[in-house]
Each structure stands twice: as structure tokens, then as C-alpha cells.
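TL;DR need C-alpha cells for one chain.
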Amino acid sequence: MDTLKLDHNDPVESGYGFTVKLEYNKSVDSGYGYTVKLEYNKSVESGCGYTVKSEYNESVESGYGYTVKLECNKFVESGYGNNIKLEYNMSVESGCGYTVKLEYNESVESEYGYTVKLEYNGSVKSWSKLNVARRRRLSCTLTFLNPFPAQLP
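>> reply
TL;DR here they are.
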């Protein structure tokens, strides 16, 4: 999956034959026809309160098993040992025009040494380069619902 985008009426089938859809007849569209990997006991919730789940009550995993929620006026916080694990070369679009992507050699690192960056209308900005005022104006991004352990498994 390159992009997980909240959209209308476009179900996406994973490589396992599941279709990821939102409740209330919404659906998840990759935007590029890529599939969504399904695992057990994971979920992604949109800012509108919809939950992304498969037809078999499975859901989309966040990486290390944390639940990822798309919200407005939130920003990604890492902190000591709380690296964000996304699969190689993946990105997640919030649906409000922002895209969380993996880039190399920045402040917030994934398991692969890539950082989470924010992209808006073609302009990529690292969280480490955004001031507090700018962060408050961001309309959508990712935030973790579950507390992180002291260190990742």
C-alpha cells in the first residue's frame, strides 16, 4: 500500500481477499489501486468516527500493533524510544490533504531509519522544522491512541 486514503464508495481488496470498508457505507481507497495489508486485532479510525475494518472483522495494522486514529488538529509525537514503524516505502494520507510519508535521515525515525514527514499540496515539511503555531493550523494527521511502551519490541 502506498496511500491509505479515506474516500467514498471505493472498496480496496487486500492481497488476502478482504475488502476494507468504513462503517456507514464509506470505504478506503488507496488512490493508486494498491492493496491494504490486513492483520488481526488492529484498527484505523477516521476523524469522523468511522472504523476501517475488513469484511471478516479484521482491520488494518499500524505497525507494532498500536491503533492509529486520523484526527484533525493533532500532530505526531514520537518521544524517546517511540519510533513509528511503517512498512518500507509506505505513506498514509489523512483525507484532508496531508500525507504522512517515510523519508530518510530526519528527526522522527521509523524502524527502517526513515522519518515521518508531512506533505501538503506537494510541499513536504518535516515535523522537526514546523513551529508550534504552524502545527496548530494543520488540519489532519495521525496520532497514536495507545500509549507506547518504554521501548519497542
